[in-house]
Amino acid sequence: MPDSMSISVNGQSQVPPGFRFHPTEEELLQYYLKKKVSNQSIDLDVIRDVDLNKLEPWDIQERCKIGTTPQNDWYFFSHKDKKYPTGTRTNRATAAGFWKATGRDKVIYSNSKRIGMRKTLVFYKGRAPHGLKSDWIMHEYRLDDNTITTTNDIIITNNIHGENNSPEEGWVVCRIFKKKNHHQKSSVDHQSTSSPVVNTVLMESTEEMTVFDSSSIGDEGALEQIFQYMGKTGTTCKEEDAGTENDTNDDTNDNSKNCRFLPINNDTTTSSLFLKLPSLESPNSSQNGYHQPINNNNNNGDIISPNFGFMNNHHQMMLDSNLMIISNWATLDRLVACQLNGQTDQASMDYCTDNNQNHHHHMQVPPVTTTTVRSSSSSNKPQAEYNNEIGLWSSTFAKSSSSSLLPSEPICHVSNASL
Amino acid sequence: MGDNNNNDNNVNLPPGFRFYPTDEELVVHFLHRKVSLLPCHPDVIPDLELYPYDPWELDGKALGEDNKWYFYSRKTQNRVTRNGYWKALGIEESVNNNTTYKKVGTKKYFVFYVGDLPNNNNNNSSSPAIKTNWIMHEFHLSDSASASTSSTRSSSKRRSSNKIDYSKWVLCRVYERDEDDDGTELSCLDEVFLSLDDLDEISLPN
């Protein structure tokens, strides 16, 4: 490493012309973030500390510029603090908007050894339920705990973390950049592709997903085609029912949705749970059932335009009846997530079926890890309404697990990624 | 690869710094100084004279960084290498100063073909050349930018004679085209999830 470095980065740059700070993910984690968390001095102040709550992306751009040459991306350290003492989420709201996580975390490898994770976030202008998606993207890199503790040359004197070194706290290194839009334009042409292709792709990706836990993901190739079918993206953050979002400073995920964030147990108990669930009469529905959220959204209108073509008449009928109960996509999504997380207890169902009236109550529902299906009900809600849904989704999962696949590709990815 | 070149030229930068020049930098900092016989510091870009190397041979000879290779060459009409030739795409872009927008140079695009140059000889015994994914950007100083150097006036007159002009340099950037080679771009998977976010917030516990 350069010990005699005398380059002043901020202020007058001595970086020779043509050279830019363009670190690999491995360099970010192995060199810069490791030094940061272990309080080692870094020769050059190329990566500055940023309080993510205080700076907007366009301010970060100014603060984190290196030298005077034009940049396409900007790097900084950020210290993550838990938003709530009891919660696990990070407060990433700024004065003008908020950073919202998207997708699943990506595992970062160094010499085929796992060293950390990358989270992708999008900046939304405005406040949580009504945020307007911007083109600002952040990649947030964190070290694996075991990376920190098992590496010999790093001495942990981590008085910032204390003994709690969870991924939701401590130093991370971030890169922000502005998204280009050429992908979205080019994908519009592929909307009308027939469904079997898409089906195959989804199945492949779910297979990949089942081995996520053994940290062998990384090939995103199987999913690349999905994007081709996604069509154009909307630009606004989907509105929630007004009542579900009381905390205006929230970054869109509030406690009321805790039920959605339980990590999936990638073990046999989860599978057996799915297997035990009652199945629906129609074999077709179990085959295609988990694509319904997309179609459902399509019915609702405007956000994803391509029709995936999975819908047969039977599903249409089912959905039409469900739509009477499930007021919007968000509700249905919650239902799916609850199911995925092994939660089929009454509270979640209530939440799903009537979030307009009961959400305050159910916001208090702690993360439930029940792995058995409770058929008894203490609810005052008409049971017939959601039984329909349970049957529908359960049969989907039963089918999926029996073919050694986990259901509902994107959501399951997300759930797994939170592990 | 390029790291070797960097070390040879004592570019002693912390991890993460790489040669990612803008077009303007290539023209102003490197090509212009080369033509003007001003010292380039650090002198990282080697001079490979004419186009003797096939693009896949450039590794270790040209300055390589992020699967792009940089080298100086001499201006010529026939850009022939051992196994093929560079064919002009007919695209020319002007390279402008970042702040004044004044034109400082020209960027020409070439694509590499494996095989013999068509109409090279009266023989057409050879099979037709095969197009590859190798792309070259060839940077030229614009007339105004090179007017300050004395040698360029006469050379521009000789250019029409279809002869190699040794007095004038170009700077080349060669790379193999790849659809998703931009490190700052989102992966396709990220795009999928961004799209899904519009359905609702399918997100992680942060």
UniProtKB/TrEMBL annotation, chain A:
Gene Ontology CC annotations of this record: nucleus
UniProt entry keywords in alphabetical sequence: DNA-binding, Nucleus, Transcription, Transcription regulation
Superkingdom of origin organism: Eukaryota
GO molecular function: DNA binding
Primary location recorded for the protein, binned into one broad class: nucleus
Limits of the NAC domain: 15-179
Region of interest called Disordered, as start-end residue ranges on this chain: 237-256
An example Gene Ontology biological process: regulation of DNA-templated transcription
Localisation: Nucleus
The protein's name: NAC domain-containing protein
Source organism of this protein record: Cannabis sativa
UniProtKB/TrEMBL annotation, chain B:
Species the sequence originates in: Cannabis sativa (Hemp)
GO biological process: regulation of DNA-templated transcription; system development
Keyword DNA-binding: yes
InterPro entries: NAC-dom, NAC_dom_sf
Claim: Cytoplasm is one of the keywords in the record: no
GO molecular function ontology, one term from the record: DNA binding
NAC domain ranges (all copies): 13-177
Name of this protein: NAC domain-containing protein
Pfam annotation, one family: NAM
Entry keywords, A to Z: DNA-binding, Nucleus, Transcription, Transcription regulation
